[in-house]
Structures are given as structure tokens and as C-alpha cells.
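Re: the 73-residue chain
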Amino acid sequence: MNVRKIVLLVPIIFITGCASRYTLMQHPETEHQSFCKHDGMGMIGSTIALVRHSNCVDGLADQGYVVVAGEQN
């Protein structure tokens, strides 16, 4: 019976959970605004969303953008 419970719980672990991150960034010289928003569901989707959001924010920061509102890495 315990093996059956484990077999049923493993898929549930992989499909549960979610991530939703957003960050509004603005370039101080041009005042151009850009919005990083990524959502994901499940273990894999959440991880992908968090990595994409981090890459988006880091890429804009490299171009001189600063966080105006939302979440920072």
C-alpha cells in the first residue's frame, strides 16, 4: 500500500506549485520603461519562470535600467 501512495504522490509533486514574478524597470536617461513578467506552474514551469525573470531583469540592468516597481532578484 505504501508503494502505491508514493507512486501517486510523485506526479502530484511535479504538477503542483507556481511562480509569478514581475518587475517594472526604467532607463534613467531615456525614461523608457520595460516590464519583466513571467509565470509558471508545476516544478519545472516554476523553475523556468524564475530563471527567465532573472535573465530579463539582469539583461535590462546591464543596459542601465533600474527597478521602478515589483520584485528584485
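The chain is about 50% helix and 30% strand.
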